[in-house]
Amino acid sequence: MSTVDGRDRRRNGRARRMGKASTDKARRRQAREVAARTTFWHGGVAGLQVGDRLLSPELTNAISVSNYDPIARKNRVYFTTDRQLARAYASLMTEGLGHGALYRVAPVGDTESDPDFPAAGFQARSALILEVEEYDTLLSPSEAGRARQPYTTWDDGRLMWDRRGQMQLNRHMEAYGLNQGHLNRLLPLWATPEEASPILNDHLHRTEARGSAGNRSSS
């Protein structure tokens, strides 16, 4: 390889790196411009004031969405463009801790999409409180469920609930022989996966026991 070829390759490598850096910088600038035009909401524990900074639970050890969602990052704060979704999380985050509040916030630093709510959720290292929209936010389980319903799916991509709050079938349930009729009959509206699991397991055990008893009587 000639010296000229080597220089050309180094120049091309630098150009590619500079091109990537320019693209990343443009994306960050675009994200900041979008954020400046967007209203963001955060639902959390009450008591914060206008001008306070929302800091990550990694720094504060506060209760956060990361206590409930293993995907959530402890070094981020979360907010959304969906006001009702933020109200739902204000209720969820404060169970047993008093009451929640709804805040209008501005992200501080780079803003990223929240993979749990890619259409409406965002995350950043911190956020500034611009307004305390509600000082005492409390939704009923059905109201909170309705707020999360359009965004909450099983790992196979199917919605977890329909609009009425009826849990929907997923591929794991189908593999065990369950159908939508079983879920409609056995589960209350807006049942959580944690609530549904023992009910469905009990139904499967009873079905298996009846099948075993029938086999013994016919033998």
UniProtKB/TrEMBL annotation:
<feature type="compositionally biased region" description="Basic residues">
    <location>
        <begin position="9"/>
        <end position="19"/>
    </location>
</feature>
<feature type="region of interest" description="Disordered">
    <location>
        <begin position="1"/>
        <end position="29"/>
    </location>
</feature>
<dbReference type="InterPro" id="IPR021975">
    <property type="entry name" value="Rifampin_Arr"/>
</dbReference>
<dbReference type="InterPro" id="IPR038611">
    <property type="entry name" value="Arr_sf"/>
</dbReference>
<dbReference type="Pfam" id="PF12120">
    <property type="entry name" value="Arr-ms"/>
</dbReference>
<feature type="domain" description="Rifampin ADP-ribosyltransferase">
    <location>
        <begin position="40"/>
        <end position="120"/>
    </location>
</feature>
<protein>
    <recommendedName>
        <fullName>Rifampin ADP-ribosyltransferase domain-containing protein</fullName>
    </recommendedName>
</protein>
